[in-house]
Amino acid sequence: MELKKNPKHKKLDLSQLDLFKRKRLGVRVGAGLLSLILLTGCGKDVTDHDKYDSGYVESGYEQMIDEEDEIVVPEHAPSETISIPSYFYVYQFDDDRVVKGDTYTYDDLAHVEECSVVIQEDGNYDYLNYMPNLKEISITDVTGEQKLASIDGKRFPAGIKIKILSPMGTGVFDQESYGFLRRIPSIDTLQVGNDSSEMNIDSTFLQSLKNVKNLKLGLGYDSNFHYQDLTYLDSLELLGRPYDIALYFSLDSLEELEKAGVHIQTENLELIQKTRQEIRNLYQSLSVPEDATDQEKLNAILTCVLSKLTYDPEVKDQLYGSGKVDSSLNESFYENGYLTAALEDPTQICGNYAALTYALCQEAGLSVFNMSSNNHAWNAVQVGDYYYYVDSTWLDGVTVNQPVTHSEQTADGLTITYDFIPQSAEEVFQEGNQEKISQLPWYMEDPTNFSQVENDKESHHASSIPSGLTLTAIPEDEKVQNEGGTSVDTENTEESIPDITNQKFKLEIDGKVFIIGGAALAGILSALGIGLLVHKKKEKKRLERLRRQREFDSMFSSSSTSSFGESNYGSSSFFDPPGFGR
Questions:
Q1: Does one domain contain both 312 and 246?
Q2: Is 24 a member of any domain?
Q3: Residue 217: pLDDT above 70?
Q4: Do 335 and 462 share a domain, yes or no?
Q5: Closest among 428, 417, 394, 438 to 534, alpha carbons compared
Q6: Does position 562 have pLDDT exceeding 70, yes or no?
Q7: Alpha-carbon distance 356 to 138, whole Å?
Q8: How far, in Å, CA of 168 to CA of 183, rounded?
Q9: What is the CATH number of the domain that holds 166?
């Protein structure tokens, strides 16, 4: 018979229950909004909100909610005092009390409504557990360490507003540092970063916070945000430069949010949409088959990037050189984000190369991260089961020895036949021979043991590994071999001359053919004054440009300062995030 529900019984929204109550009910709360309807007699009816991305369940966050240990918070008498170090600012109490110095009673803390705190290396922040009436809090993380692990979000009131900044660029927004957010009954507004204070974001953790109603998200080059699902929000405010926001939000994700009724706020949504349309058009112009492998997609993308972009060492020197710096160039290259110059300017530097590679990889459905050191930018791209380092900037500056048969006849009647000419990385990709492509340095490098050119410059020593990225040593049988016949143009010469000493060549004299070593041939040609290389007009033009670019200057170091206004959401001013050299 049909089981009827008793209309007098109430619907219980499990998303509003404390964690320990969920455990007692024996309900597994995961994907989205789960509701339990009590029925007459026995049985239960559980419905799952379908506004959820499966990545959350697969990542293990569902299991974390069930297995998370309870945080024990000691009880204290209201009159008991606690000494709180500097950089804790109370902006408002719910009464007229005034607190001086750094000593508070627990009763004082219970009446705090607005405050800010700066997370430092030697601080203890357990006092945040004693603010049950807190309405707004601003957290500034200058350490990147897990200092808030002992904070119990259940002790925060529902409807709180939280702002989290990382002005030093060291903050990581992840479960280990900010897991207490998941335990707060509901968060009216959560802000993570802003246009001058971006954070390394664990996207899966952020998008698991279904208790957030309104999200303000600051995005920059190093945020490495991956959109999964934010359709449960009431509003989404995107903070940052439009070309950086366009790195992370595709047309599909923006359309999904709009259809779900999420109110999107940003300064220039039209430019973001226009930029993503341009990225989509650019990828579609590559005519990559739908069933293409990850590596085939990557090859097509690199062909596009190398064809479209031109490295400009003069811009790098003017932006970050040791001499007079032209700050006005920042507007054209980076003020609107790292895709700015990649799409708008005639020349580019490494941040632009990496940004375009990133955006096209996302359009292709490849998992990709931005990587940066103190003076360079590149990407980590997943191909198959592993992440590889891919550096489109340095790929644009290499040549490989392309085997051909070429003959030259001297005025003395000697015919010299040699079997190579230099070929640029762009030409190798366009030709599509995977064996030749695999010879390219900086194409698919093992990130745990890569062969670094100019090692003393530490150009590829990542300043931090993006949250959510695990770099694994690649087995020898799965590595792309980068040995044999590679030559990088690093000298200030008109032409790049590859190492020929270990190669064999044919020397034809009066119809007789002699096989000689490369060293001997080099001596003969040097005596005869005959050039070894045959360059196309395009290659000569490119080498003229490349010969000036091989000094790798360190990026200028930036300092950061911060100041808070008279409220929790007071002003903060920091230097603009720097760009990168080559």
A1: no
A2: yes
A3: yes
A4: yes
A5: 417
A6: no
A7: 34
A8: 27
A9: 3.80.10
Q: Give the C-alpha separation, 580 to 493, whole Å.
A: 25
Whether the CB-CB separation of 341 and 244 falls below 8 Å is answered with: no
Whether 198 contacts 173, CB under 8 Å: no
Note the pLDDT tens digit of each residue in 345-399: 888 999 999 999 999 999 999 999 999 988 889 999 999 999 999 999 999 978 7
How far is C-alpha 304 from the geometric centre of its chain's CA atoms? 21
Asked if residue 541 and residue 404 are part of one domain, the reply reads yes
**pLDDT (average), residues 214-222:** 94
Q: What is the domain range of residue 202?
A: 81-279
Q: Are residues 176 and 274 in the same domain?
A: yes
CB 390 within 8 A of CB 381: yes
Beta strand 512-517 with 504-509: parallel, antiparallel or unpaired? antiparallel
Specify the pLDDT at position 542: 44
* Domain final residue, candidates 234, 259, 279: 279
Contact (Cβ atoms closer than 8 angstroms) between residue 239 and residue 195 = yes
pLDDT given for residue 570 in this prediction? 34
Phi, psi of 105 (to 5 degrees): -90, 160
36 and 111 housed in the same domain:
no
pTM above 0.85, yes or no: no
Phi-psi region of 158 (alpha: psi -120 to 50; beta: other; left: phi over 0): beta
* CB 153, CB 560: distance < 8 Å: no
Give the residue from 279, 295, 314 where a domain finishes.
Answer: 279
Tokens (6 digits) for 175? 């479960």
Cα separation values, 193 from 138, 163, 471, 562, Å: 11, 8, 26, 13
Q: Is 524 helix (H, G, I), strand (E, B) or coil?
A: helix
pLDDT given for residue 419 in this prediction: 61
End-to-end CA distance of the chain: give it in Å, rounded: 74
Strand partners, 314: none
The closest alpha carbon to 200, from 182, 231, 176, belongs to 176
The CA distance from 86 to 72, in Å, is 25
Radius of gyration of the chain (CA): 30
Give which of 238, 242, 244, 368 is closest to 298, Cα–Cα: 368
Q: Across residues 58-77, what is the average pLDDT?
A: 62
Between 319 and 96, the higher pLDDT residue: 96
Residue among 556, 560, 559, 464 nearest 221 (CA)? 464
Kindly give, in sequence order, each residue whose CB lies less than 8 Å from that of residue 72, ignoring residues fewer than 6 positions away.
Answer: none
Q: Is the domain of 411 the same as that of 520?
A: yes
Strand 11-13's sheet: what is its strand order? Answer: 11-13, 34-38, 44-48
Token pair recorded at residue 3:
């089981």
Whether 576 maps to a domain, the answer reads no
What local confidence, expressed as pLDDT, does residue 102 receive?
85
Buried b (16+ CB within 10 A) or exposed e, 461-489: ebeebbbbbebeebeeeebbebeebbbbb
- What per-residue string of b and e applies to 363-387 under the rule 16 or more CB within 10 Å gives b? bbebebbbbbbbbbbbbbbbbeebb
DSSP per position, 213-273: EEEEEEE-GGG-------TT-SEEEEEE-HHHHHHH--HHHHHHHHHTT-EEE-TTHHHHH
In the sheet that holds 386-390, the strands lie side by side as 368-372, 377-383, 386-390
